[in-house]
Amino acid sequence: MPVSIRFVALVSSNNSPLYIKSFDSQQQKDLLRYHFLSHMALDYVLTQLSQTETTKDYALLLVHDGMAVYGSLTNTNIKILIGTDAQEGVRFDLRTTFRSIHKAYISYVCNPFHEVNEQAPIKSKAFDNSIDNFIKAWNSAAVGFM
User: In this predicted model, what pLDDT tens digit does every residue of 102-114 receive, in sequence order?
Assistant: First the structure.
């Protein structure tokens, strides 16, 4: 039984939040919870995802309160975090989702008409729409298997 993605977060190289989005029905209530889980996961990023280990695309960073947080570290030290329901014995591959989010971030950063500030949150409708499309496709596939 596939799991649903509950949130996506991007954190800058200096650990300031760039983007966080909830995919739950109670978005405002859970957004604070997802911020908290994202910051908790940052404690495990460097130990689980070292830059010398090139075979790891992503890793399970922590499980807390029924949520599993997976993380990926880009070459520029941008941390991509995905929160899912924690279910034992369920195997799934988030590699393509992490790559799609990373490609969307690269497109956002490489836009010549947008000034990127690594301290400021991402406020791009195109970036937000692309993340929505990736996650909604994943979650609709997960619902189809239930």
Answer: 999 999 999 888 7
Count the domains in the chain. 1
Q: How many CB atoms lie within 10 A of CB 38?
A: 23
**Contact predicate 124/108, CB 8 Å:** yes
Closest-CA residue to 60 (of 12, 93, 14, 35): 93
Range of 51's domain? 5-144
pLDDT in tens, 19-54: 999 988 666 667 888 888 888 898 888 777 665 555
DSSP one-letter string for 61-73: EEEETTEEEEEEE
Q: Is pTM, for the whole model, over 0.90?
A: no
Q: What is the CATH number of the domain that holds 30?
A: 3.30.450.70
What DSSP string describes 74-134?
A: -TT--EEEEEEE--TT-----HHHHHHHHHHHHHHHT-TTS---TTSPP--HHHHHHHHHH
